[in-house]
Each structure stands twice: as C-alpha cells, then as structure tokens.
Write a structure and sequence with these properties.
Number of strands of chain A: 0
Shape of chain B: globular
Order of helices and strands of chain B: HHHHHHHHHHH
Largest sheet of chain A: none
Strand content of chain B: under 5%
Largest sheet of chain B: none
Helix content of chain B: 55-70%
Oligomer: heterodimer
Mean pLDDT of chain A: 85
Shape of chain A: globular
Strand content of chain A: under 5%
Chain lengths: ~400, ~230
C-alpha cells in the first residue's frame, strides 16, 4: 500500500495546475480518492457533518444489497447449465465454476467500458469522477442473459452511459435508469440474442431430450392463444429433465432459467431488506410496485378473457423480473419520484403497466423494463402534481 | 388626404450579381448554422421515417429540394397579389402542384421507391420546411433569392438525411447504397460477420442519432438557443 501511495505522490505534481498533464488531473484524482481516503479535512468553521454518508457509501450499500442476487445468480447459471445437459449430479463447486466463468467476464466488461467512458467525460468536462457508475456497472450484468455476447455488453454499456447519462449531464442528471437503458438497447438492437432460448447457458454441451428454453412468461403468452390453463402448464413443464421448475414455490426461490440476477424473488427480497434497513431504497416504491402488479392481476382475473388473464394474480409477482426491477431499478433515487406521495403513485403505476404489457403485448414478454422506463419519464410530472396539490391545500388553509 | 406627397428619390440600383455574397449565404447558411433540421428542428418526421437506407434519403432530398425551390419561386412571383388572409391556402395549392408532380414522376420511373416512401412524398405538402420557407422568405423576397433559398434549405435538409442514412444503413444492415447498381456489403466484403443493429433501423434509433448529430454540431459551432 505504501508503495502505491508513494508512486501516486511521485507523479502528483505532473497533474497540478500548469504542469504537463494538467488536463488529466481529474482522472488522477479519481484514481487517488478511489484507493485512498483524501487527506484534506474540513475547516473548523464551515459545514456541519452529521454522518459521513456520501454518494460512495450509498452506492456501496446498494451493491451489498445486490450480492445475494449475484451469488445466487452465479450458482443458478451453473445449476441450470448442468440440468440442461443432463448432469444433475454435478457438484456445487462445478456449478459455481461454470457460473463464474459466464458471469465474471460480463461484470468486468461492464465496469471496464462504463468507467472508461466516465473517465473520458470527466477529463473532457473537467469535473471529478462520480461514483455513479458503481451500481449501474453491477446492475447491467444482473439483467443480462447468461450467454450474452461480451461485445454486446460493451456496446450496450457504452450506449447507456453516453446517451442515457452523459448526454443529460452526468451522474444524478439522467432521466431514465441507466442500467435499463443498456438492456432496452440490446432488446431493440439485437432481439435475437435477448429472446427465445437464451436463458440457459448450454455451451459446448448437448441439451437433453425434451429440453425447452421456454420461460414462464413465454408459456403464459402461449397460453393466451392455445387456452391451456397457465398453472397446469407451469406445473407440468420440465418433466423428464427439470421436474417442477415452474411450480409456485420454485418460482419464488428462483431456481430456474432467466437473466443472471433476476430469477430469485427470495434473493431480491433479501436485497430489499438491506436497502430498506439502511435507508438506501424507498420501501414505498417497492411495496407499491408489488401492490400495483397484484391489483392489476386481480383485475384481469375478474375481467377474464383468455388463459393469461386468468392466471392467478400472485404468479405475476414471481415470474419474470418483477421483483428485481421493483427492488433495484424502480428505487433508483435519481429517476424515481422524489415526493413521498409521488412514490406511491410511481410504484403503483409501474406494477400496473408491467402486468398490462405482459398480458396484452406478446411482442414484449417482459413488461417491467418498459414499465420502469416509461414511469421514469413520468416521475417529474407526478412530482409536479403532488407539489401543486400540496400548494393548493395550504393556500386553502391560509387565512389572509 | 393631404395633397402633400413625398418625393421618393429614385435610386439607380446597381443590379446584383447572380451569385453575390448575400446570395451565396442563402445556400451555405442552411447547410450549417441555419440548418432546417438540426437548428430549426423542422421536418424531423420524414427525416426519421425514410432514412433507413441511402437511396430513399437521396430521392427524398431531391424531391424536397425541387418542391421547395419551385414553390418558393412561384409564391415569390405572386407575393404582391396574395391577400394575406388566405395566403396559407394559396401556398398549399402551389406546393401541392409540385408535390403531385414529384409523386407522379416517382411512380412513373422508380415505382419501387415510390412504394417504399409511401405517404412521405405526399406529406411533403405539409413538411414544415416547405411551409416555413414560403412564409419566412418567399413572401418577402424576389424570385431569384427565393429560388436559392429553396435550394439551400433542401440541401440543408438533405445533408442531415444522408448523414443519418449512411450511419443507419451501415450499422443497421451492414450495407451501403443498397438498391444501387454499386451496392456494397461493407462488412461481408471485408470478411467480417456483422450482426445488424436493429435499433438503428427503428425510427427511435434515428431520433437518438439525430440527437447525437445536434449534440456534435452544437459543440463544434457553439450555437445556443436564445430565449
């Protein structure tokens, strides 16, 4: 550590004002403060610090919240791989190894590309590098299918950081969630790599007889046309190679194919507990997303129509990526509603639109991504109405 | 009425050369600092809709330049005789004549292209650039500058269309000049297996691309909107 400190100190004078690498001062500064605590302190007079929480600590808290999803995801990628090639007896170590080989490169690419762009922009715009990419860089891998081509991760990350964030002014200024921008980009740019049989990593192996890459959402969407009972087709799916993969309890546990981090509702809820306990995420948004999806599901049950609308409402909460989106995407403090009442409305509408898109738009089986992006755009409007309603109420009360 | 009349001094005006500095500006300004798409933000709908390949973008550019230039000339010739209350309908009638002409020509000689561009040729009638130039320029200027103004704005529109189309066609489907005899499969000929980017083929992708062009242009020439 001392060696690193000495090396950094040795080159420091080159970056100071008037020296040869002055342009790159902020790149140097970011590297320095990332590795070491800054040695500058506040004046005796001046700002009053109550708690040392800053952007960096908030971001790290969210990352810790994602760790259960990530670890489970790595194991699950391996587990599904061995089930699909018919080697159910593989050891835990093998599963973790296969999973890590798939997942870790995606994480490295996502962080490498994203932080590279952040450094370039902070140098060009002469502002310190923010820690804004720490969470995004971890969210992007978690919403990717396990065998997504790495160059696509790089392109999507670059697109999301430049268009989703830097074009609007950088960390804290983005209108829509950056990680979801990356996924939406892939979804529309390379649809064949983000739909169909991509949710299980098969690799060089040969899939077992009877293997199918269908997901609960695609089964349910098929049911809308064929008219078979959705719950029955869930329960009978996977017979012969992955018995009971889509039963309700298993859907909740998340031992099923899907994006790397989104499959397990349980792990997302553990993450939610961490976020809520530390105050990093708003419980109102999380609860109201689930509530909105459930209410919309119940409403569709009442309306009836086809087999998908008649799927019991609680299934909507455990299939697809609803839980992951609700906990980690919808709660993003930059893009969510800021007012407390607004958070309820914002979350509720996300849940409602998710189910609506799932059921009525078979072209987009996963509704949560589009629902969150849509409501990100409307969040400032919701806040506006909440604030003006508040003003109106207070004006009525005022006696002039 | 007073009997007093103001003697207007007749100034012997030197006739302006056809391509004076002022007239050249009519062509060059719309290409950059007064671009109809990136600065005035007009005519965006067709710019997003027909730029997924270069060929329709070129045809559209020619069509719009032709219509704008000749509508400008005719309105400019008529400008002193048009009652201002009904000027829009007169302008529309003139524009429609030229658009119908373009439409029929396309249908007669490049029918596939006419089918591909579907309603967008007809929609030149309501293209904001055409109407905007008539209102802002041709109604107050002589025919020859109006003609140049129409050509300039058509080309300003076209240059953005072609930039959009080149990027979209190259990265969207991996080809250039598709539909021409010298069609070029860029990545195939270099031996690279290229997977087309579907987002760029959607109008939404074109919208993002247009935003990037505006971003780049404004950071180069420092243009800021004034309120």
């Amino acid at each position: 550590m001392n060696f690193l400190r000495n090396q950094l100190d040795k080159v420091k004078h080159n970056f100071e004002r008037g020296q040869k690498w002055e342009k790159y001062y902020y790149a140097y500064e970011a590297l320095d403060t990332f590795m070491f605590a800054p040695n500058t302190t506040n004046d005796v007079k001046g700002s009053q610090i109550r708690d040392a929480i800053d952007l960096k600590r908030l971001m790290m808290t969210v990352i810790i919240g994602m760790v259960p999803c990530l670890l489970f995801g790595i194991w699950n990628v391996g587990h599904q791989h061995f089930l699909a090639i018919g080697q159910a007896g593989a050891t835990l170590g093998d599963k973790l190894w296969v999973g890590a080989l798939q997942v870790v490169p995606i994480i490295i690419i996502s962080y490498g590309v994203g932080l590279g762009i952040e450094f370039i922009f902070s140098t060009l715009r002469k502002h310190p590098v923010n820690e804004g990419f720490l969470v995004t860089g971890m969210l992007i891998p978690l919403v990717m299918p396990p065998d997504v081509p790495l160059w696509q991760v790089a392109v999507a990350t670059a697109f999301a950081v430049i268009i989703g964030k830097e074009a609007f002014g950088g960390t804290g200024m983005n209108v829509v969630n950056v990680a979801l921008t990356a996924r939406a980009f892939l979804y529309f740019a390379y649809p064949s790599d983000l739909s169909g049989d991509v949710w299980t990593f098969i690799g060089d192996g040969q899939a077992v007889a009877g293997y199918s890459g269908a997901t609960p959402l695609s089964l349910a969407a098929d049911a809308a046309t064929t008219g078979v009972n959705v719950v029955q087709s869930f329960n009978s799916f996977g017979a012969g190679w992955n018995e009971g993969v889509f039963t309700l309890s298993n859907l909740f546990m998340g031992i099923r194919p899907g994006s790397i981090g989104e499959t397990s509702t349980l792990m997302c809820l553990i993450g939610a507990l961490i976020l809520i306990a530390t105050g990093a995420g708003s419980w109102k948004i999380i609860v109201s997303v689930f509530g909105g999806a459930y209410v919309m599901g119940l409403f569709l049950n009442l309306v009836g129509g086809n087999a998908f609308t008649q799927m019991p409402a609680h299934y909507h909460l455990v299939i697809g990526g609803l839980a992951f989106g609700a906990v980690f995407m919808a709660t993003d403090p930059v893009t969510a509603s800021q007012t407390e009442t607004g958070k309820w409305v914002y979350g509720f509408l996300i849940g409602l639109f998710t189910v609506l898109i799932r059921v009525f738009n078979p072209a987009y089986p996963e509704g949560i991504m589009l629902a969150i992006l849509l409501m990100n755009v409307f969040a400032p409007l919701i806040d506006y109405f909440v604030v003006s309603a508040n003003k109106k109420r207070r004006l009525q009360r005022a006696t002039v | 009425m007073s009997t007093e009349t103001v003697e207007i001094e007749k100034v012997e005006k030197k006739s302006e050369p056809l391509f004076s500095k002022k007239n050249k500006k009519l062509i060059s300004n719309p290409l950059d600092i007064d671009n109809p798409i990136t600065v005035q933000i007009l005519g965006v709908c067709s710019a997003l809709a027909i730029t997924s390949q270069i060929k329709p973008a070129i045809v559209m550019t020619l069509g719009l330049t032709f219509v704008t230039a000749f509508s400008n000339v005719f309105i400019s010739l008529m400008r002193n005789g048009i009652p201002s209350r009904i000027r829009i309908i007169v302008q529309l009638a003139i524009v429609s004549v030229w658009v119908i002409l373009v439409d029929q020509l396309l249908k007669a000689y490049v029918y596939d292209m006419a089918k591909l561009m579907s309603v967008y040729v007809g929609l030149i009638i309501t293209n904001c650039i055409v109407m905007g130039r008539l209102e802002a320029y041709a109604m107050a200027n002589k025919p020859w500058p109006s003609f140049l103004d129409g050509i300039g704005n058509g080309l300003g529109y076209g240059i953005i269309l072609i930039i959009l189309a080149v990027v979209r066609e190259l990265f969207g489907s991996g080809t250039l000049f598709k539909g021409f005899p010298f069609e070029w499969h860029v990545f195939e000929s270099m031996g690279i297996k290229y997977q087309g980017n579907g987002l760029l083929l959607l109008p939404a992708g074109a919208c993002i691309l247009l935003g990037i062009i505006i971003w780049v242009q404004r950071s180069i020439n420092g243009y800021r909107e004034t309120h």
